[in-house]
TrEMBL record:
Organism: Brachyspira catarrhinii
Catalytic center residues: 265
Single annotated GO MF: phosphoenolpyruvate carboxykinase (GTP) activity
Binding site for substrate: 71, 212-214, 263, 377-379
Annotated ranges, domain Phosphoenolpyruvate carboxykinase GTP-utilising N-terminal: 14-233
Catalytic activity as recorded in UniProt: oxaloacetate + GTP = phosphoenolpyruvate + GDP + CO2
Family assignment from sequence similarity: Belongs to the phosphoenolpyruvate carboxykinase [GTP] family.
Higher taxonomy: Bacteria, Pseudomonadati, Spirochaetota, Spirochaetia, Brachyspirales
Binding-site positions, Mn(2+): 221, 241, 288
Summary of subunit composition and partner proteins: Monomer.
Cofactor descriptive note: Binds 1 Mn(2+) ion per subunit.
Cofactor: Mn(2+)
UniProt KW GTP-binding keyword: yes
Name listed for the protein in its UniProt record: Phosphoenolpyruvate carboxykinase [GTP]
Gene: pckG
Length: 596
């Protein structure tokens, strides 16, 4: 389709304005067809940036620039006129100043490149919960990834019509080409020139300088979390960093679970759970993001706004996540993995290593090499429909009704395997105080503890104190139809550093307990931190777990929790008067219970 043929005048004039600034050699409007995907991929193959994989049908391997391997939190901005509206956990710049700086960078940034216009829908096209975005990008790699991760093309323009609303998303890799020049390597700009900017008052996204993942596929973290969270607050719904799954018990009763864990804490694994308990079945709806609205019956309905998985490769194997492994057998893009000599990809934790390959930097690699073969944040981009346990209703436009919310993080100590909140406010307290030890997907030191409220620390599009308040207000609206809230920790270790819980498929045992609590089938034990399973209520049938280890896994260490309460107070102090009083009260109540 040509630019002139676009029916939406607002869209047309925005594209023209951006093209005047970025000066691409031409403009191409994406139709979303498989031929278009193949053409873009072929261009990347011809440049030597994409390597077709002999062993996986219609799949390709890429190596990014070593400076462009992950989301750049330090270069991510939430821009409101007043800094306080971005809050203490976001990087802020004044919108006029930020736009002035970025306009200078965008000027001519697409020279000798094509500007691709990608109309995309987050959520099933036409769903009342879905939103439309349009990404302008100079990266064919982004086009291919967006084809997988979102619903792209003419069908979206049809829904947009002549005066529909869309979120404008401008993206440039920030590497203009000289006349006759072609990309020889992954194009991007140096770190100090990268900007991932959000203007929530205008529902606007400007990204410059990175071609990688969340920095460049603007439907994902930028739109579906940062901009959507601000929209959701204004419009009375929720945009959350949550997987969605359906669990069916042996009697055929269905439960829908949405779970928030910080990046790289196993959301994809839990979303594709293979239960180890007899008669229970899990189906995947989404592995990263949930958009939820209150339905006519007063319950909370969730959709997965995405159409694909952008999963962490290292550690993914037929042992840890067979459903993910089956999802990536074909039609998949791999970034920063090892390329094996026989035309496949490999990463640490996948299987026995190949005798020889090329590492993520393109160097010869063998198991004896001193460095890892794949980057720790190497990724696969795969269509969600390829997941063997994708739920038949994963694209239901009205969503699925949520019964259970789970928060969690990676904690070697303090947090027991599972506890349940006493009520909604206590559950919001749990979410607002969620904390995790950091991994390679976060920028910063690995292994440090960071509070990550609702797993949204890098993704909230407004002041986190107001975000907490929005959760409280949603609870007020939902009343007795609100999902029950739980907190889990799959990662507790004993004094010798040994994992106390097997995790993976055995996490179904914990989910079973939650479902039985929802059904009111079983009672629970009150503890200072929340409700916990009574002896014998957590189904450990067939599991070899030492009694002492299990006791340690479930132990509430009062002294450690008193210390935790102090850390929470410190964490809360950042939010000043934006911290809801109701959460201060929760902290006081926790302390009172710990002192009894
Ligand atoms: O590093 C990136 O650009 C990807 S980050 C990511 C990708 C998929 C799902 N979640 C995340 C995340 O950081 O939460
Ligand atoms: Mn994520």
């Amino acid at each position: 389709m040509k630019l002139e043929d676009l029916k939406n005048e607002k869209l047309k004039s925005w594209i023209k304005e951006m093209a005047d600034m970025c000066q691409p050699k031409d403009i191409y409007v994406c139709d979303g067809s498989s031929e278009e995907y193949d053409r873009c991929m072929q261009e990347l193959i011809d440049l030597g940036l994409s390597h077709p994989l002999k062993k996986r049908k219609h799949s390709h391997s890429f190596r990014s620039d070593p400076s462009d391997v992950a989301r750049v939190e330090d270069r991510t901005f939430i821009s409101y006129p007043n800094e306080i509206d971005a809050g203490p956990t976001n990087h802020w710049m004044n919108p006029d100043e930020l736009k002035k700086t970025m306009k200078e960078l965008y000027k001519g940034s697409m020279k000798n490149r094509t500007m691709y216009v990608i109309p995309f829908s987050m959520g099933p096209v036409g769903s009342p919960i879905a939103k439309i975005g349009v990404e302008l990008t100079d990266s064919a790699y982004v086009v291919c990834n967006m084809h997988i991760m979102t619903r792209v093309g003419t069908k979206v323009l049809d829904v947009l019509g002549s005066n529909g609303e869309f979120v404008p998303c401008l993206h440039s890799v920030g590497a203009p080409l000289a006349d006759g020049e072609k990309d020889k390597k992954w194009p991007c700009a140096p770190i100090e020139k990268k900007y991932i900017s959000h203007f929530p008052d205008e529902n606007l996204i400007w990204s410059y300088g990175s071609g990688y993942g969340g920095n460049a596929l603007l439907g994902k973290k930028c739109l579906a979390l940062r901009i959507a969270s601000a929209m959701a607050r204004r419009e009375g719904w929720m945009a959350e960093h949550m997987l969605i799954l359906r669990l069916t018990n042996p009697e055929g009763k269905r439960f829908h679970i949405a779970a928030a864990f910080p990046s790289a804490c196993g959301k994809t694994n839990l979303a594709m759970l293979q239960p180890t308990i007899k008669g229970w079945k899990c189906e995947t709806i989404g592995d990263d993001i949930a958009w939820m609205k209150i339905g006519e019956d007063g319950r909370l309905y969730a959709i997965n706004p995405e159409a694909g998985f952008f999963g962490v490769a290292p550690g993914t194997s037929y042992d840890s996540n067979p459903m993910a492994m089956d999802s990536i057998r074909e039609n998949t893009i791999f970034t920063n993995c090892v390329e094996t000599d026989d035309g496949d990809v490999w990463w640490e934790g996948m299987s026995e290593p190949p005798a020889h390959g090329k590492d993520w930097k393109g160097n010869d690699w063998t198991p004896a090499s001193p460095d890892k073969g794949a980057h720790p944040n190497a990724r696969f981009t795969a269509p969600a429909k390829q997941c063997p346990i994708i739920c038949a209703d994963w694209e239901d436009p009205k969503g699925v009704p949520i019964d259970i919310f789970i928060f969690g993080g990676r904690r070697a100590s303090v947090m027991p395997l599972v506890h349940e909140s006493y009520n909604w406010d206590h559950g919001v307290f749990m979410g607002s105080t969620a904390a995790s030890e950091t991994t390679a997907a976060n920028i910063g030191s690995v292994g440090a503890l960071r509070f990550d409220p609702f797993a949204m620390l890098p993704f909230a599009g407004y002041n986190m104190g107001d975000y907490m308040n929005h959760w409280l207000e949603m609870g007020d609206k939902l009343g007795d139809k609100a999902p029950k809230i739980f907190y889990v920790n799959w990662f507790r270790k004993n004094a010798d550093g040994k994992w106390l819980w097997p995790g993976f498929g055995d996490n179904s045992r914990v989910l079973k307990w939650m479902c039985e609590r929802v059904e009111g089938k079983i009672d629970a034990k009150d503890t200072p931190i929340g409700r916990m399973p009574k002896d014998g209520d957590l189904d450990l049938t067939g599991l070899k777990i030492d009694e002492a280890d299990f006791k340690e896994l479930m132990r509430v260490d009062i002294e450690a929790w008193k210390n935790q309460a102090n850390e929470i107070e410190n964490h809360y102090s950042k939010f000043g008067d934006r911290l809801p009083q109701r959460l201060k009260k929760q902290l006081e109540e926790l302390r009172a219970r710990l002192s009894k």
